[in-house]
Q: What sequence folds into this?
């Protein structure tokens, strides 16, 4: 999987300097457990930011704070210049409509077909679409992930990799400005993981999305991230390109690359 020839080779556009997401000195604790300890980072428009870290490092909590599912104890988080820590629930919901999620397990509704899963998400975010507009959006979303033929299948009939791709189609169908990928290659075989990595890269090129990719998979980090931050115990221990992270002299950061 480390063979770079297996991955997309198109030049990616350089992200805009304008930050779409900003974390400013964010703290979050659960009782005596300090999960985020004053982290600050930003995501530019059109940038893929990888958050790399082991279980319990604070990756998932940072995302929950970003979408307002948990409140920060201290600090500020901005999306498109709006401080989401100050928004009410209605304003938060409007902001969430800009964000697509690819959950680790796909998180599809088992009793619904692929078509119904996508339409359900679309209707939740865009209530005034016609049936023709919804059908067109579903078709485009499935074309993006190469699974038009799965439209009338149930999740139980799909492989793990296919469910992950349908999950990505569901994230894309709302045309988000931001996509959050939660362990996108976890539990997948090498070939399927490579397909998901290529899809992440293609989506960025096609839609100019900004993404946060939560992972502990170094290959995923290497090929999807414009920039990487490494979290340990809620603190950013390193930040930079994959090569810069790989050459970091911090013993804990170096431990990621030990065979």
A:
């Amino acid at each position: 999987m480390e063979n770079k020839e297996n991955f997309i080779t198109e030049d990616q556009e350089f992200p805009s300097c304008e930050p779409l997401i900003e974390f400013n000195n964010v703290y979050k604790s659960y009782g005596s457990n300090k999960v985020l300890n004053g982290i600050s980072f930003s995501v530019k428009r059109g940038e893929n930011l990888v958050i790399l870290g082991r279980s319990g490092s604070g990756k998932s909590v940072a995302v929950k704070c970003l979408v307002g599912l948990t409140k920060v104890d201290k600090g500020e988080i901005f999306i498109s210049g709006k401080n989401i820590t100050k928004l009410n629930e209605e304003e938060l919901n409007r902001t969430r409509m800009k964000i697509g999620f690819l959950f680790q397990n796909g998180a599809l509704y088992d009793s619904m077909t692929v078509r119904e899963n996508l339409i359900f998400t679309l209707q939740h975010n865009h209530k005034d679409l016609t049936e023709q507009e919804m059908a067109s959006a579903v078709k485009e979303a499935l074309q993006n992930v190469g699974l038009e033929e799965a439209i009338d299948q149930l999740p139980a009939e799909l492989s793990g990799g296919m469910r992950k791709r349908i999950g990505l189609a569901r994230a894309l169908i709302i045309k988000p400005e931001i996509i959050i990928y939660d362990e996108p290659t976890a539990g997948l075989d090498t070939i399927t993981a490579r397909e998901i990595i290529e899809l992440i890269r293609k989506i960025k090129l096609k839609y100019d999305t900004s993404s946060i990719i939560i992972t502990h998979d170094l290959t995923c980090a290497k090929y999807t991230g414009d920039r990487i931050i490494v979290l340990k115990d809620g603190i950013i221990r390193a930040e930079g390109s994959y090569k810069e992270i790989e050459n970091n002299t911090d013993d804990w950061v170096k431990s990621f690359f030990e065979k």
User: Anything to note?
Assistant: The chain has two domains: 15-98+176-259, 112-175. The beta strands are 19-30, 33-44, 48-52, 74-79, 82-83, 99-102, 178-182, 210-215, 227-232, 235-240. The longest strand covers residues 19-30.
